[in-house]
Amino acid sequence: MSLNAILNSGVSGMLAHQTALNVTSTNIANVQTEGYARKTVEYSSIFVNGIGTGVEISEVRRITDEFIAKELRLATAGSEQYKAMSEIYGQLQSLLGDPAANNSLTGKLDNLNSAFAALTVDPTMSVSRTAALNEITNFGIETNRLLSQIQDLRKEADTHVAEEIEVVNAAILRLHDLNLEIKSASQSNKPTGDLLDQRDQALTEISKIMDIKTYPMRDGAVAVVTDAGQQLLDFQPRQLVYSPAASVTSETIFSQITLNVYDTVNKTVADTGLALDPELQSGSLRGWLDMRNTELPNLAAQIGSLSAEVAARFNAVHNDNITVPPPAAMAGRNTGVVATDAHGFSGQASFYSFDANNNVVASYTVDFDNPGTATMADVIAEVNGALGAGTLSLANGVLTMSAQGGATGIGISQEAGSPSDRGGRGFSHFFGMNDLITTMINTTNDTGLMASDTHGFTGTTTLEFRGPNGEEPVSMTLDFGAIGGTMADVVNEINSNLGGYTTASLDANGALVFNNSTGFGDYSVNVLADATDRSATGMSFSEMFGVGLKYPADAGLEFSVDPAIAANPQLLATAKINPTGTPAVTSADNRGALAFQDLATARFTFGSVGGLTGSTVSLGDYAAQILAKSGLDAARAESLQSDRAALSGEFHNRLQEVSGVNMDEELANLIVYQNAYNASARIITTAREMYDVLINLV
């Protein structure tokens, strides 16, 4: 070996060991840096004509385990999904409060029941009447507050969706740039470790928001896809496009997140028509979407269902009672019923007129099962014939009753042995003649119509079958002028268009129900447009049958005492008609008040709503079920978040064992590389001394 070869070996050794020292010092400096993967050097000998002439660093190798890294990303996505849900659930539990507290939903209902129980002691006391009405108002304030704030939380979740999409988009573009830099460095045989660290950090950032997988491409680049297989990055980056809602109500249709190809030159996106919402399986974005689209609407539907039942039961009792003195007139709500319609009732109802002393002037009992009493016109004619022309009238779907022929008051009662019934409600209750509680939307969708009845609608309504993530497999326009005239024709038309996804039918009470096909359990029928009118009453198809996203979610909004009764508590009906009594109604009669009291323990059947299984329970127990389910859902989300976080932590620790900096190992390497560097320097010194000896000999 020549002196030049010796000198070259020493120089190459110094340079190689210097690089090794630089790598080791960088490892030590980044011992606490999140996402940093330690680096090692690979040495290789330099040969010239088969003779070793030194050493070089062939590679600065980044130490990691891609399998563990991929599993860590998926575990992180799962943890972040339930972390997002727990954040909303935490706020929700604060809104709902302690179920045992007086200001909770169950507490408000208990207060309502207690106030009406106190009314039984002396129904004539104005303070007791006012207190009972106030508790109805307080319950309505609570349901209105909860339902409004649920929509606020949906808006908050929607804001998070928009914010995190911006984060994902920025990270995808950063990944694209890093891919290009890594490819260029690889082709130039330059170190890529730091670039790979940056890329992993960007991948980690995305994995918190959505579930992703990576696949290797040429020259060190990676492709990124969702766990369901939607491409986020290959040779071209994708961008997520989303427009957040300006405001949120129960009827808000949120835009879908679309996946678009990004032109890096022109900075534009090309719409692919691909919706990402249904594809996301985990990540914080999935958590925000689930809370916005499913969990919060479910809770709103549950509260709405409770509110509708409270209104229905208190209105049923109030319609079966009478004020003292009896009212001179009563007006119902718009039912969409007209005089030519079949009355649709069974059983019997009695109609009364009273004098100024509350004695019966005239009465008439309608037997709805009498074949001669077929239409509403027949019912009206019979009552007016007995109590005086104009006593009953029906216009624009609203039934009214007024005292005629010198009478000062009127009333309607059920016959105990054979009470009238249409759609599960008595005559007065069906028409809302003496309702105690009003709500923003129609909460009584038991129409009493049968398949053979005339539907009576004109115009069109557009329906869509919509999934929780905006999936819309089918929509249809129901043109009432182009189909047959019966309710059976309406049902058949719906099923001919939506039958592969859901099946419509009329239940025994005349409610329009939809039974979803397998795989579409959490889909719903929504109304996009409704320009229908039943028999010129102003009652639309969607309102009459409660079709659309706002049913029953808005049933607890504007839940209040009828304004006339609120203004005059003496109009609270607490007595019953005694047709043989003199007088027939008395202020001391507390039978009506006792009927209100019985509502506290009576059991009613609730259908499956918003993920809450149907049951037959009291109103208070149903309210408790709502709060309990919400609490259990919150606890489940917290537990799953904890489990996923533990799994993520385990993968993180395993990855650190592979790629993390070990200070003991690095310090040992530091000594080795330092000694090797010094030894190489000594070789150079020795070679130089040998050169000096040769020069001096000359």
N-to-C span: 21 Å
Helix content: 40-55%
Strand content: 15-25%
Number of helices: 14
Described by the principal axes of the CA atoms, the overall outline is: elongated
Low-confidence stretches: none
For the largest beta-sheet, the strand count, sense and barrel status come to: 3 strands, antiparallel
**Count of DSSP strands:** 25
Mean pLDDT: 92
Order the strands across the largest sheet as they lie in space: 3-4-5
Radius of gyration: 38 Å
Describe the oligomeric state of these chains in a short phrase.
single chain
Structural class estimated from helices and strands? alpha+beta
Short summary:
By secondary structure, the protein is of the alpha+beta class.
Would you spell out the secondary-structure blueprint of this structure?
Blueprint: H1 3-29, E1 39-48, E2 51-62, H2 66-96, H3 105-119, H4 126-187, H5 193-209, E3 212-216, E4 222-226, E5 231-233, E6 238-241, E7 258-263, E8 268-275, H6 284-320, E9 329-331, E10 348-354, E11 360-367, H7 376-387, E12 392-395, E13 398-402, E14 409-414, H8 427-431, E15 437-438, E16 457-458, E17 460-466, E18 474-479, H9 487-498, E19 502-506, E20 512-516, E21 524-530, E22 533-534, H10 541-545, E23 560-561, H11 563-567, H12 591-598, E24 604-606, E25 615-617, H13 619-659, H14 663-697
Antiparallel strand pairs: 1-2, 3-4, 4-5, 6-7, 7-8, 9-13, 10-11, 10-14, 12-13, 15-23, 16-22, 17-18, 17-21, 19-20, 24-25
